[in-house]
Request: fold
Amino acid sequence: MTRLRAILAEGVALVIGDPQADRLVPPTGFTARLTTFAAGAMAFLAVFALALSLASGRLAARWSEELARSSTIRISAPAEERAAQTEAVLRILQATPGVAQARAIPAEEAAALLEPWFGPNLPLDTLPVPQLIEVVEESTGFDPQGLRLRLTAEVPGAVLDDHTRWRAPLVQAASRLRILGLLSILLIGATTAAMITLAAQAALAANAQVIAVLRLVGAQDGYIAQAFVRRFTLRALSGAGIGVAFGLVAVWLLPSAQEAGGFLTGLGYRGWHWVLPLVIPVLGAGVAFVATSAAARRVLRELT
Amino acid sequence: MVEKCKAACAAWLSLHVVCEEGKKGQTCGRRGQGGCVIELDRVAMSYGGGELFGDISLKVQPGSFHFLTGPSGAGKTTFLKLCYGALRPTAGQVRLFGQDVRGLGRDDVALMRRRIGVVHQDVQFLDHLSVADNVALPLTVSGRDSADQLANLDELLAWVGLRARADARPAELSGGERQRAALARAVIMQPEVVLADEPTGNIDWEMSQRLLQLLVELNRMGTTILVATHDLNLIRAAKSQVQTRVLRISNRRLQLAGADL
Reply:
């Protein structure tokens, strides 16, 4: 509790600052610009990485949910038996727990499904196209093994395809894409930390004489460090804020989600997700705070 | 001009004495055995395998005025650095206000330095701040830069003859002015000890006399003074005004000097 209070007090002191202490460190143009630019560029990239991660997550969830709730039964039978077998399958499905609805896909619809591959003038009646039955599950789902056994026994020409074979790799790909997005955010954070650490070390080394004077007059390490840490934290906060603003505008200008565009046009934020990027400057400032604190401790120890 | 300076000096002195009395119980309470402010016990210092000096023992009593002399390279600056905790001895013990510096962390040493004013030969200032801000630096870093504390700043600058230069940058000051600004910075916290390393090294004789006068005035107020210098004329001038003890580092040992000065 005491430690928490100390951290809170430190945070408040960091935000409020000490104008006198801030003046003690001379302005350093190069490191200031480097830190602000690095934080801005990284925040800009983080906006896209976050968008990628969120879009991948949405895609994985949609594929997982939508495909998991639908199955297809394929009936390969001679033309004269096809209608009877279709009827038999629909009867079985009506009696199967967990099946919300089932319908035989008409020939016109089957032709439309094949049209992208075979063209519009497909003579469906001359091809051995199987009859398809679309099965929509209830949220509880049905027992695919039990259904398969029953179909094998009663309608030997019917084959159940619950999409497991091709759904799994798609969902896995989307999930991995989401992980890649999150990993990118982590790498961006680590790179930001590395850049700010280097800039802070350069600033501290360049101000070795200032540090020597401050120590000579009785300044404690915490006081000296705070003057640098606050400066770098605020630079990172402002830089990341600018980067996020540009990133959000860029994402907003992306084409909106369309069925035809698929995944790429869905690479944006939806609903309350637009709020998430606003956390990036705060995280950037946090990264700068930790990185500069560590650098200041190390440099001050070496400058004894 | 002289009268003005004297008046300012008197104002600063009165302020200083009041403040000293106000905090006497606090500042004098942790001195070492025998009330010493600085104690060196069989101290040795080595650099790069070679011994700079060794087996040095010294007790600096409060209110005393010491000169430390010796040839260049004898270790006068190193000796002073030992006396304000900037260096640790390679052997022996250094006690500041009764505390062994070996047991002090960096922050403890920083706190200790608020009781010890230091003036270097190569005076270091923060060049982007004004003279007044530089002089007030010890108050700023110790969080005592309140209006009341800063009110004394003007008197202090007048005492060292720099009131008119308060807003100047350190780079605009002459050598003598820089030394006086450094002295003002060293005493603004009303320290118990002032250590000065060749304070007159870069200034003319007239300015040296003025600086010495300021040190003597401080000593008369009860501040312990330790000055490292190779300027024997300065030591002779001081001896005519105040009781001093002259130490010499010679042949890696600390000796009491004086008869030849």
Summary: Chain A has a mean pLDDT of 84. Chain A has two domains: 2-59+178-302, 77-156. The first strand of chain A starts at residue 70 and ends at 75.
